[in-house]
Structure to design on (297 residues):
């Protein structure tokens, strides 16, 4: 029991909180056909990472990820301005701004002498799930021993859920009939940018713990898994979280016990295994729906 509390529970808690934060907002992205926005944001945060390193003068995770959050939100706001001024499609505006931000980040890496910023696969692609441990405090509540990443992800998940609840009417109108929503005022101009800003914060909060690979999978895959099986928004959100949660737990179990279950030499990356299961479940879900639809009544 103690081994589970110290080693397994923090990893599962972090992965599940990242699922809630990313998948809740990812459902709205999929409904608006902007599922790859998360991938674009992942490229736009590079100048923020470098800027955080330069300001802190060292490899400071809080400073670097705070800088990434500022860069991501700034990119979203700038893309909205470019779209309005140049009358471009949202995807085109996002592509222009995020490409410019990534190029700016690469230039900063060279000109500011910040090549030592840690952007290796362990940091960016796979996160730090395997390095998270619960350390029971000598005195006081047990929750004080939870890793810092857990609290960050808890705040991000709460923000994602609250945004989806408070702006449900506006986000629904923007997803199903964006032109009517804008003309009629059902979804004010700030609805899209605000939701994308919250999405950016959720992505940045999840990066350190689960990595960009799993973040992108969590944004799109649970929503795509649920899409063929329900027509209601509540059912879609509930099914995406349930399916994503089940696959997250199974993925972690397979990764942690890979030597026994899969015959590998050592444990596998939890983030990589969960992302692989989520990606594989998308076509399986659609195939299952096709099979069920052909059954006689």
């Amino acid at each position: 029991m103690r081994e589970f509390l110290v080693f397994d529970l923090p990893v599962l808690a972090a992965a599940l909180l990242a699922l809630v934060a990313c998948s809740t907002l990812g459902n709205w992205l999929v409904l608006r056909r902007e599922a790859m926005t998360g991938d674009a944001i992942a490229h736009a945060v590079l100048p923020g990472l470098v800027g955080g390193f330069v300001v802190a003068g060292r490899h400071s995770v809080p400073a670097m990820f705070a800088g990434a959050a500022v860069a991501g939100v700034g990119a979203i706001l700038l893309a909205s301005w470019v779209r309005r001024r140049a009358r471009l499609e949202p995807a085109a505006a996002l592509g222009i701004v995020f490409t410019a931000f990534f190029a700016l980040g690469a230039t900063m890496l060279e000109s500011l002498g910040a090549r030592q910023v840690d952007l290796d696969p362990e940091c960016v692609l796979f996160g730090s799930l395997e390095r998270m441990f619960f350390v029971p405090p000598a005195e006081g509540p047990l929750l004080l021993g939870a890793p810092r990443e857990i609290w960050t992800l808890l705040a991000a998940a709460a923000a994602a859920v609250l945004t989806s609840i408070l702006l449900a009417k506006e986000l629904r109108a923007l997803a199903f009939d964006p032109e009517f929503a804008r003309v009629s005022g059902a979804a004010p101009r700030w609805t899209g940018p605000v939701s994308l800003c919250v999405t950016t914060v959720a992505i940045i909060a999840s990066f350190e713990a689960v990595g960009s690979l799993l973040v992108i999978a969590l944004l799109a895959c649970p929503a795509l898994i649920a899409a063929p099986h329900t027509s209601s928004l509540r059912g879609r959100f509930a099914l995406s979280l349930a399916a994503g949660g089940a696959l997250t737990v199974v993925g972690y179990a397979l990764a942690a016990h890979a030597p026994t279950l899969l015959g590998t030499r050592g444990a596998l990356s939890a983030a990589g295994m969960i992302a692989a299961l989520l990606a594989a479940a998308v076509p399986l879900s659609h195939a299952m729906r096709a099979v069920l639809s052909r059954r006689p009544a």
Residues 2-210 form a domain with the ABC transporter involved in vitamin B12 uptake, BtuC fold (CATH 1.10.3470.10).
